[in-house]
Structure formats: C-alpha cells, structure tokens
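Aim 2 progress update. The chain analyzed this quarter is reproduced below.
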Amino acid sequence: MRSFSKMFCWQRAARCENKKQTIVRRRELVFNKGVITYLACGMLSLVLGCLTFIWTPRDLILTERLRMRKGLPPFEWWADPPQQVLIRLYLFNVTNYEHIINGTQTKLHLQEVGPYIFREQLQHTNIVWNDNGTMTYTSERNPVFEPELNTLSLNDTLTVPNLSLLGIASYLENAPFFVKFGVNLVIRRLDSQPLIKTSVYNYLWNNSDPLLTLASNIAPSIVPVDNLGVLHMIYRKFKENVTVFIGPDNSRRFFTMDQYNGRNRFGYWKNMTCDSVKLATEGILYHQQISKEDNLHFFRKTLCRVTPIVYQKEIVEKGMTAYRYTLPLDTFNRPKNGSPDCYTLPGSKPHPDGLTDVSPCFFNMPIVASFPHFLAADPAVRNSVDGMQPDEEIHSAHVIVEPNTGLPLESKAGVQCNLAVKDVNGYSRVSGFSNSYIPLFWMQLHQVGVPPYLVYLMYFIAVILPNIQGFISSFMVILGSSLLAIGFYRFKHKAAKVVYSYISLDTIPSAT
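Predicted structure tokens:
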C-alpha cells in the first residue's frame, strides 16, 4: 500500500512528505466567463426571437411613430416639412368685354389663362404635447411665387369680374328701395363697371375698387375688408391653432382634430353636423393600417368643410403597394337621402348640384366652390358661360397613400371658386348678371412627393421588414438555442476541475 502511494506521488510529480499519507481525487465546479456569456447571450437571443414572432419590429416601429417623438424622422418631417406642395393657379379672362359693356351680348366668353405657379410654405410652430394624448400646434400657410417655374408674367393684363360691385349688389339683394337707389347713385358717381381690366398681380393680391373702399369705411361691420385679391382672401388668415390626437391609444384617429382654434367646431356653420371637427385632418398625415373600407377626411379652408375621400383602387407606387383615394364627383351635390343640407345658409336658396357655399370662409362674400370647369355640375350652370371644358382626368382630385404608415405619397386636388350673383335687377349696371355663377379662378394643390429618406423608411417598413421578419425571428431562435447548447456542454465538461488532497492513512480504520 505504501509502495503504491509512493509510485502515485511520483507519477503526479507530487511530494509526499509523509509515507503515511495518501492522495484522494475530487471534482470542484468552477464557473468561468465564457460559459456565462454563452448562456446569457443564448437566453437573450431565444427570448427576443420568440417575442418578435408576437410583437414584430414593424409593429414596434409603427407604434413608436404614433408617439410623434421629437428627433425621430416622422416628427421632424412633419414639424418642418419640405416645401413640396405646388399651387397651380388658373384665371379666367373675359374675351367679349366690349359686347358685355354695350349690351350686345349677355353670355360671358371665358378663356383659361395659366398656370401661375406658387409653392405653398407650411409651418408648424408652438408645438405642445398634452397629457390627454393630444398635441397642439399652430399651422400657417403662405404662397410664394416661383419665377423659375413660370412662363407667364404677373404683369399680364386680364379682364375679370368686378368683385366689389357684383359682390355688394348681391349682398344687398333684399335691401329696401331707398338703399338700392342710393347705391345706384354711388355706382354712377364712381363709374364702377361690372368688368374691369387689371394686372394678374392686382387681381391676386390687391384687388379693390372705390366702391368697396367707400363701403368698408361707411359700414366696416358689413364690409370688413377693402381688398378682394383672390390669394389675399384665401391666405389672409390661414393661421390656426390645431389640436390633434396622437399616441398608441389613438391609432385609429391618429392626427384627426380634437380642437380647432380651441373649439370642437370650426365656427363657420350653425349645424354641428357640418361644423364639427370630428374626423378632420389637414391632409398631411392619416392613420396607420388603412383598409380599403376606410374613408379618409381632410379639411381645407378653401372648401370650408370636412371632405371625405373614398378608396378607388390599389396601385404600385415607388415599389410599394399603395391605395388611391378620390374625391367623389357628387361631393358638392345637394343631399338626396333626406338628410339636412347644412351647407346652405339660412334664408338662402340651395345652389344647383355641383356647387357648395363657402362664403363663411370668404368674409361672407357670395362665393361658391365647385370642381374646375364645373365638372359634374348641373349642365345649366356649365352652359351659362362659354369656355368651360371639364375633363375628369385633369380636374378631379385624388390622394395616393401608403396604407401601413398612412403617409401620402402624392396628392392632387383642384377647386374652382365662383361668384354667385344673386337677383341684382335693382342695380342697373349689373342687372344682366342676375342669378348667375361666374367662374373666377381654379387652383390645383399638388403634393409632388415626399423626401427620399421618408420613401426609404416607408419602403423598409412596408416591403423589406415583412419579407425578412420570419427569417430574423427564426435565426434568433436557432442562434439562441445553439448558444444555450454550447453553454451547457461547456458547463458539463469544462466547468469542473480535479483537486487532489492528502489524507493520512492513520485516520483510515484498518480491516480486521
């Protein structure tokens, strides 16, 4: 026994100081960093792989976008949008001016002149995140003339309706006889004509008349403006405080209005059905995960109402599946199902189909909106003037939306503003225009695209992520399982060491 102990000590290069001792071998667990790393990384990868089957990266990205966090691309693009909206403005020049003035003709012959191209500058300022899942901001729009995009000059001369004379005469349609008599005297004294020759610039920005100046000085509460320039009227007060819904809890009503200038209504119409801000958007962002059954809604001050757009067809745009929505051609028609026509002002007779009153948004001037060239309007209205050539391909409106993100890839909308001349037979110089609708101009708003980085982001979310999602999740599960297997193998075979101890033979009981 002792000789065996000596030999064992010699083979292990161990010193046996006492021949009465022997060596005993035992195993001790030793955890090293390599094993812990394998196990931790494997568990993390496995858990993440399983979770991404339930909560996909695309869903997480879209949910985060709903929060509109400062610094992230969706917010920054909205807060400081690139000036991608073009305004193409078309004016109507009266070509039979002399015949109208001398009374040999009563039907206006109109010639479309344009486009005059502007870029609409949109600013969002004073942004505040509210505790109730909404965001408040100030929205302001301004048109900027683009000389390099224009072939026509703002100094060109046009013959156009005298908005001051025709507007005041229409406003005083039901005035007493002595008032009409006095107005006729003033009209003759100032020599106001129903048609005037003016420059394009003045017609857009500085359209006035001595009659209008006099009226605004005498009765400022009735005539609050002395400038009827068409772009001046549209953009003079195009600055509003808007509160919209944001956040994951408001995904279906994302960026729809909660308040407009501090109220839950616009303040233009008495009927709450027409005046409510519910479902209204600015047309810049829509809710995510749009379905073909959804109707989208936008508010534009030029239309003075919330307007629905409906799904038309599925298309491919910039490599992505997109939905094309259109503005129905019966948008400006009178209701046919018995519902109240709340876009007809009290005391006024309804306008023909294809025309809608927008006077509350134009200082109560008798202005009605329609599709350009009276597209889809009552034929009697379209035939009351010469020069209308409606074309659905050119004059209709559409929006192309990427349905996953709700971002519009392109939008194009045209609207025509017309002067609704009422019964003005009491005013000799304009009596020939009684009960008529005179086209003033039409404008097309064209969002020509979104920045490339947003297109890439939408493409990544809508196309790339869904195709690689299953691969990524499966890879993470396989990787996690492999790392765990390696970790357990190393733990079993390499996470223990042999320790040799000396034990005195005297302590071992002898066999008897």
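The chain has a mean pLDDT of 82. The radius of gyration is 38 Å. These observations will guide the mutagenesis experiments scheduled for the next reporting period.
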